[in-house]
Design goal:
alpha+beta, Structural Genomics Hypothetical 15.5 Kd Protein In mrcA-pckA Intergenic Region, Chain A, Pseudouridine synthase, 3 domains, 10-stranded mixed beta sheet, 4-stranded antiparallel beta sheet, 7 helices, 21% helix
Amino acid sequence: MPRKGKKYKAHQVRKVEPNTSIIDYCSRAFPLLGSKTAVKKAIAGGRLLHNGKPARPEAVVKHGDRLELKGAGLSEARDFDMELEIVFEDEHLLVANKPAGIAVNGNRVKTVENAVAGTEQPSAEPDALPRPVAVHRIDVPTRGLVLLAKTKSALITLSKAFEENAVKKEYLAVVHGMPPKQGVIDAAIKGKEAVTRFETVQFAPSRVFKRLSLVKLRPVTGRTHQLRIHLKEEGHLIVGDKEYAGGQKTILGKGLFLCARRLEFEHPATGKAVVVEIEPPRRFGRLLERERERYG
């Protein structure tokens, strides 16, 4: 019998070819695993039982064997009561609008994953994850769109799409100075290729900072802090970025003026294009208006 009080998925082996390895069989039998690598991790973590005992990686399965899988290999969500705007959701994924100041995930309480775990119902799909799992991250001080998977297959497919830079992302930022109308920043970060496309939308003269500009940013690659580093190196520090300001004067105490506002990707189940977009933060435009008024 499945263990009471624990989230086990049980499976009875029926028709099976002779000498079928447990790793090959379970990668097909348990949608929540879905790959040989995941089966090996489940065995190593003691989460897969074979006839009531911890499974061995060299084992073979035969007719009548009982297999049990405990959980999904995810850490338990921690209580974090925060209402997040869900911009898009179906049985496979959801897109949340993250406020500035909280992490996407990690070993802390204030995260997007913890916030949605307490409010979102699990998917009805056979490979449903016990809670939504973030497919990518944006920085703690950055606000905007975060994509989370609700099924194992969506997690695998979307993670691969991000690795292959197949997800189109667009950010908005207010920066110091006035960049060219449009261009490409191609500058490696820690020895790895990093490419950012940009377009200057508008600018405002400023008594204190000379000029501030609103720019669209489209990262082609996804390096850590890529946009912040690229803009700083080009002489256009993002307003409020105290981590990269160095000795440069910027507006502090108002947060980082950077927002992930658009995602475009192929739906992991239907293959159709999905575009999710939010309105720019109003304070971005208000800052430019205020600087124009003060300058005049």
